[in-house]
Amino acid sequence: MAPNQLRFDDSCQLKYHCIEMLAPMIRFNACDFSPPSYLGVSLAKKQAFNFCEMNCLSRDQEVCVLCWGDAQETEVLVGCSNGELKTFSTEKGLFTETRQCGQSDEGKFTGLAVADSALVTSVESGLVKVWKDGATKPVEINAGRSVCRMVQNALQRHHVATGGKENGLKVWDLERPDVPVFTAKNVRNDWLDLRVPEWVRDLAFIPDSEKIVTCTGHHQVRVYDPASPQRRPVLEAQFGEYPLTALALPAGSPCVVVGNTQGQLALIDLRKGLVRGCLKGLAGGVRELQCHPSLPLVASCGLDRFLRIHSLDDHSLQHKVYLKSRLNCVLLSSKDLEACPEAAPAEQEVAEEEGEDVEGEDAVWDAMETVTERRKSRKADGGDEGAEEKSTKKRKVRK
């Protein structure tokens, strides 16, 4: 199937009802050279929505992390680089709450999660905070410096994992935050007996198990098993020659999707560590990947300003959306991406007006006279050219 390429229209404002944008996905754009914005894309209606007022944006509002605020997917939590945490209502189509959960000197957000009624945040300095309802101060956990990623365990929601540059994988129990429940051990020295550097860029908990998969800035994919006595990786694979920046776990598949700084995507089998296929089409570094919870689809965004959705069955490109600026985060809804909800009354009126305009234009074009141009036959043209060639040729005189 040929990819459906969309173009983001600047005139697309909040006059559209924003409930339908959740059918496909929500994603945020953050860029070093243009103002940040919070956009929604509807694959069913082939539309993009901008939920920010561009005249009041600044670069310190760059969005670093996204997560759902509840199980019903009616709220989206948005973490900005200035330490603000915003709550976006998908039913109202606007931001309903803003609070300060970090300081600029602590670094950007590297993770965001909701555990029961508490909110969990992580920043680059390694400070993990648990914000409980009714508490005056959050519970702080020091996860070490240069934390690149914090991820929550979907089965045990009070467990989170952290990792970063020269900061190995750690698993924390938020109910007992004094010491980590698991601390990974670095691999053995290389063949020159030199220490192998650590750089965890992204990680994820493997469903229906206690294993954790990580990707590193040294193009390595590693699997850890906290249930085993071995603290070193139980599996290690390599892909490409460039740093890996993001990973995602497909539903019901023993593979992991990884992406690097050159825009290369690959499926790696976690049973044998082999590359099972590649996803093509990207032209810039990958910032984030996310697989659909129930469908064999993976969404990717990055520096080439495109949002792409690939099929994990045949590795084909299903959708391609151009969104004008460099992208940081992508958040998929659990609903069917191409399920089109019923249109709101205001949208129905707009559709009727557009239909009337189209009918009027068709009537004008039908009333216009068709202009036909007489074409010369090839035989006549060929004959004339042959006569000219014969007249220009000189006879050969024999001696």
From TrEMBL:
BP GO terms, sorted: ribosomal large subunit biogenesis
Domain of life assignment: Eukaryota
Classification via Pfam families: WD40
SMART domains: WD40
Region (Disordered): 343-399
Biased composition (Acidic residues): 349-364
Gene Ontology CC terms: nucleolus; preribosome, large subunit precursor
InterPro entries: WD40/YVTN_repeat-like_dom_sf, WD40_repeat_dom_sf, WD40_rpt, WDR74/Nsa1
Biased composition (Basic and acidic residues): 371-382
Protein name: WD repeat domain 74
Biological source species: Paramormyrops kingsleyae
